[in-house]
């Protein structure tokens, strides 16, 4: 009879033990680490009022009008034709011709 009493006491102690309860408690979602270049001192940063919390810190992704790679909008170069390019050489070369059009 004493064995069962000790077993019940052990189970009750485990149930109320903070260490064991911590293991059973669901973890809160982790905060994503911010890229160092995304931290800005102006009010247009990723934590500015009106900025959606799920929006990436680097902005929207756009496609290069010449080679078709995707890059952050704030890193793209605007061409005279209104398209965005990944580098100065592609901006000078202009849009891709039909035989080497971007995939997609």
What does it look like?
By secondary structure, the protein is of the alpha+beta class. The chain is built from three helices and four strands. The strands form two sheets. It has a two-stranded antiparallel ribbon with strand order 1-2.
Secondary-structure blueprint:
Blueprint: H1 2-16, H2 18-24, E1 61-63, E2 70-72, E3 77-78, E4 84-85, H3 88-93
Antiparallel strand pairs: 1-2, 3-4
Number of strands: 4
Radius of gyration: 28 Å
**Structural class of the secondary elements?**
alpha+beta
Largest sheet: 2 strands, antiparallel
Note the run of SSEs as H and E. Answer: HHEEEEH
Q: What is the arithmetic mean of pLDDT?
A: 74
Neighbour order of strands in the largest sheet: 1-2
End-to-end gap: 74 Å
Name its key features.
two-stranded antiparallel sheet; 104 residues; alpha+beta; 4 strands; 3 helices
Summarize the structure.
The protein has 104 residues and is α+β, with helices and mostly antiparallel strands. Helix content is 27%, strand content 10%. The protein contains 3 helices and 4 strands; from the N terminus they run ααββββα.
């Amino acid at each position: 009879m004493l064995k069962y009493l000790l077993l019940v006491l052990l189970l009750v102690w485990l149930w109320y033990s903070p260490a064991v309860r911590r293991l059973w408690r669901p973890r809160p979602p982790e905060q994503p680490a911010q890229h160092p270049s995304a931290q800005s001192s102006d009010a247009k940063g990723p934590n500015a009022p009106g900025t959606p919390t799920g929006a990436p810190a680097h902005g929207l992704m756009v496609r290069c009008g010449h080679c078709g790679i995707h890059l952050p909008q704030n890193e793209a170069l605007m061409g005279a034709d209104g398209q965005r390019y990944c580098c100065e050489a592609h901006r000078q070369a202009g849009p891709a011709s039909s035989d080497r059009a971007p995939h997609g």
